[in-house]
């Protein structure tokens, strides 16, 4: 999904277009596999502790807290973008992009862009005031990908978490 060499750009043109659609309950197992792949890439595989049951309930139960788009090629999910609604007292409802991932074999083929366009359309349709997310400062390929969208990087805020409840 990241810009690459000229050869990779040529492959983008020849790559089959992915089908991007809203995630369904049946996609959760594959999405969780991709979440594990992302955690390995981000050097934190031990941090993934969510169970498949909790993941499914959180997205498809009686009160879903996340929504997602999946990208599939030949019926296989090769990427996803998962978001939830964040409320800003200054800006109102905003889309929070939790994860956007394209499996390694399918990166640099335009699939990340297809997922990003689906997110942007969803944000417009739902009348959100913007899309926000985080990216690790060392993840240069992701940063270059996001820069194509003329995003603003904020170096002021510090991440905070309370994990021991």
What does this molecule look like?
This protein has helices spanning about 5-15, 30-40, 50-60, 110-125, 140-145; strands at about 20, 65-75, 75-90, 90-100, 130. The protein is α+β, with helices and mostly antiparallel strands and about 160 residues long. It has a single domain (about 5-145), classed as Aminopeptidase (3-Layer(aba) Sandwich), CATH 3.40.630.30. Residues about 1-15 have low confidence and may be disordered. The chain contains five helices and five strands; from the N terminus they run αβααβββαβα. Strands 1-2-3-4-5 form a five-stranded mixed β-sheet. It is about 35% helix and about 20% strand. A hairpin with a 3-residue loop joins β3 (about 75-90) and β4.
Low-pLDDT residue intervals, each spanning 5 or more residues:
1-13
Termini gap:
37 Å
Could you report the average pLDDT, rounded to the nearest whole number? 90
**Helix/strand order:** HEHHEEEHEH
Approximate helicity band: 25-40%
By DSSP, the count of extended strands is: 5
User: Which value, in Å, is the CA radius of gyration?
Assistant: 16 Å
Look at the structure and give the CATH class. Alpha Beta
> How many individual helices?
5
Overall CATH architecture: 3-Layer(aba) Sandwich
Query: What is the percentage of strand-forming residues?
Result: 15-25%
CATH homologous superfamily placement: Gcn5-related N-acetyltransferase (GNAT)
- Widest beta sheet: strand line-up: 1-2-3-4-5
Largest sheet report: 5 strands, mixed
The CATH topology assignment is: Aminopeptidase
User: Structural class, from secondary structure content?
Assistant: alpha+beta
Shape assignment: globular
Number of separate structural domains:
1
């Amino acid at each position: 999904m990241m810009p690459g060499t000229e050869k990779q750009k040529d492959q983008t043109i020849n790559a089959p277009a992915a089908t991007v659609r809203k995630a369904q309950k049946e996609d959760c197992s594959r999405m969780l596999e991709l979440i594990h792949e992302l955690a390995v890439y981000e050097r934190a595989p031990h941090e993934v502790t969510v169970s498949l049951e909790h993941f499914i309930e959180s997205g498809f139960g009686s009160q879903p807290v996340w929504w997602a788009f999946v990208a599939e090629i030949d019926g296989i999910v090769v990427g996803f973008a998962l978001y939830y609604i964040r409320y800003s007292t200054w800006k109102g409802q905003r889309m929070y992009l939790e994860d956007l991932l394209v499996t390694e074999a399918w990166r640099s083929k335009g699939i990340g862009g297809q997922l990003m366009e689906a997110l942007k359309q969803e944000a417009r349709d739902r009348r959100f005031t913007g899309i926000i997310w985080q990216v690790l400062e060392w993840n240069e390929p992701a940063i270059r990908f996001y820069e194509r969208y003329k995003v603003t990087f904020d170096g002021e805020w510090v991440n905070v978490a309370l994990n021991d409840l």
